[in-house]
Amino acid sequence: MDRLDAMRVLLAVVDAGSLSAASRKLNAPLPSVSRKVNELERHLGTMLIVRTNRRVLLTNAGRDYVDAARRIVADLDEAERRASGEYQAPRGELAITTPVEFGAHIALPIVFAFMEQYPEVTVRFLAADRMVHLIDEQVDVAIRLGPLADTALYAVRAGDYRMLTCASPRYLGRCGTPLKPLDLAHHDGILFGNPSKFWTYHIGGEDVVAMPRTRLSVSTAATNRLAALDGIGVARLFDYQLQDEFRLGTLVPILTEYDGEARPVHIVYSRQGLLPLKVRAFIDFVAPRLRAVCCRE
C-alpha cells in the first residue's frame, strides 16, 4: 500500500464529504477510492470514517489522523515546491478561483494575459458561486467580492463593484417603474443569493432591505441576468454584468439614487511558509489591472 497516496485519498474523501464525491474529484473509480481507505484503516487497525448513505463522518481516531495527514501532505508539497524551483522563478500549477460571472467578464482576460507573460505557469481555474476553502481545495489564490469573512487569509484590495437594480423595458412597460425601494413590494422579482446582501438600499441614512415578490429564484448570477433580460421581473445585478446591457438598452437601471456604497474586490491567499513566486507574480500582475477595470471613484 502506498501510504502517502492513501492519505491523499482519505483527505479527498473528507473534504468532498463522501466516497462518490471524492471519486469524481479525483477522477478515480469509486471502488479504487473505497479500497484505498479500507487498506489504510486495516493498516492502522482502526476505523477512520463512518460511512452513511449520504456522507462520511470522522471517528475520533479519524480526526486526529486527518489533522496529522494534512500536515504531512502540506510539508511534502512544500518540499516539492522548493525542489522544483517554484521559489526561484514563477513556474508550476497555479490554482485560481473567482465567482462565475466575474471570472467570465473581468478576471479571465487578465488571467490569459498573465499566462502569456509567464509561460512556465499553468493555471487551474475554478469558477464557482460559493465560498471555496483555499487550503482544503488546494487553491492558491481567490478573487472575492464583498467584505471578507475569513480574517486568517492575506488580502490585497483590488478595486470595488456595485449592486445595481434593473429591469427590461418590456417588464417596465408592462408593470411600471418603481420610484422608491419600498415600491418593490408591488413588483415581481428574481431572487439570487442572500436577500440582505442583494436587496439592501440606502434610505434616509440607513440601510434597509426592500424586496420584490419572488417570481423566480435562481442559483447563478448568469441566470439572474438572463431572467432579467427576458422580462421576468426586477433584478439586482453586479455592475460588471451590465455594461453592454445598459449601452444597448436591453436592461434599464432603476432606483439608482438609493444604491449603497461600493463593495470591495480582494485578491486573497493563504500563506504557509514562503510564498511561491508564481503567487507573488500573479498578485503583482493582476492587482493593478483589476483596479483599472473595477474602480468606481
Automatic annotation (TrEMBL):
Keywords: DNA-binding, Transcription, Transcription regulation. The keyword Oxidoreductase does not apply. It comes from the Bacteria. SUPFAM superfamilies: Periplasmic binding protein-like II, Winged helix' DNA-binding domain. Residues 1-59 form the HTH lysR-type domain. GO terms for molecular function: DNA-binding transcription factor activity; sequence-specific DNA binding. Pfam families: HTH_1, LysR_substrate. The keyword Repressor does not apply. One of its GO terms (biological process) is DNA-templated transcription. Belongs to the LysR transcriptional regulatory family. Transcriptional regulator of the ttuABCDE tartrate utilization operon. This is HTH-type transcriptional regulator TtuA. It comes from Rhizobium mesoamericanum STM3625. The lineage of its organism: Bacteria, Pseudomonadati, Pseudomonadota, Alphaproteobacteria, Hyphomicrobiales.
